[in-house]
Amino acid sequence: MNKLDGISVFVQVNDSGSYAAAGRVLGVTASAIGKAIVRLEARMGIRLFHRNNRSIGLTPEGVVFLDHCRRIMAELASAEARLSSVHATPSGKLRVSAPVVSDRWNRVFLQFMARFPDIDLDVSYTNRIVDLVEEGYDVVLRIGPLQDSRLLTRRLGVFSLRLVAAPAYLERRGVPQTIEDLLGHACLRNRNVSSRRIDNWPLGPDKAHVNAGLSNKLVADHYAMLLMATLDGLGIACLPSFWADEHIESGALRPLLADQTANQRAVSAVWPGGPGFPVKLAAFVDFMAQNLPAMLR
């Protein structure tokens, strides 16, 4: 087996949980799988798996190597898809899970549909963490850290959370000059749909202490509600830039404490691992990588 074969065997063993199960997927014997892993470990000079008669698990070195292998396989699949797309038109149904987002983000989806008219887009909006394998999604757009080792990912862009308030509110209650000043203000807070906890604001190294002292004038699990309340002058909110920026540009909202609350959040495309990279999926991921960053900024 060549180096790429060894990588694919390694990833399949991890995903399948045993040599025998990986062999069934790849159409070879468990013995052949075991020999491929031994050769790979010998070539690298490290142990990739802890093994005993009942189970198999990654070593710390194996965890690091797995992440690199998935990236290599994703890049290879993407390259193959791009080359094949020269002769294939992206088409068919594409099921996408996306966070609840603003109109700016939605316009990127509509631009994708205009660019690829033969793809039927099925978008499901939710802020909870979905299991795309179990729920049958082709791809998920996800915010924040990624942990599921069964999945392949591509980082699409970044955005920031911004503290904002309407001019009318600030005229009435005053402009906070420090993070501690927020403790005396009406705060409009987001509840995380997955954890059911109120999200912390990016308030510096002592954020946990300061967040605990913030008021909860309004708590909602939908940014559209928080944006509306902020525009109505009901308090200060912490909104993603793609919700807040057009209202900052128009003057309807004012940014607060920007130099004291610098932060960054990543947006990634996530899809199931496995052989092949459908042309329609490659088209979607590439289009988002090219067009989403400008909207996020």
From TrEMBL:
GO terms for biological process: DNA-templated transcription. PROSITE patterns: HTH_LYSR. SUPFAM superfamilies: Periplasmic binding protein-like II, Winged helix' DNA-binding domain. Keywords: DNA-binding, Transcription, Transcription regulation. GO terms for molecular function: DNA-binding transcription factor activity; sequence-specific DNA binding. InterPro entries: LysR-type_TF_proteobact-type (IPR058163), LysR_HTH_N (IPR000847), LysR_subst-bd (IPR005119), WH-like_DNA-bd_sf (IPR036388), WH_DNA-bd_sf (IPR036390). It holds the Pfam family HTH_1. Residues 1-59 form the HTH lysR-type domain. Belongs to the LysR transcriptional regulatory family. PANTHER family: HTH-TYPE TRANSCRIPTIONAL REGULATOR, LYSR FAMILY TRANSCRIPTIONAL REGULATOR. This is DNA-binding transcriptional regulator, LysR family.
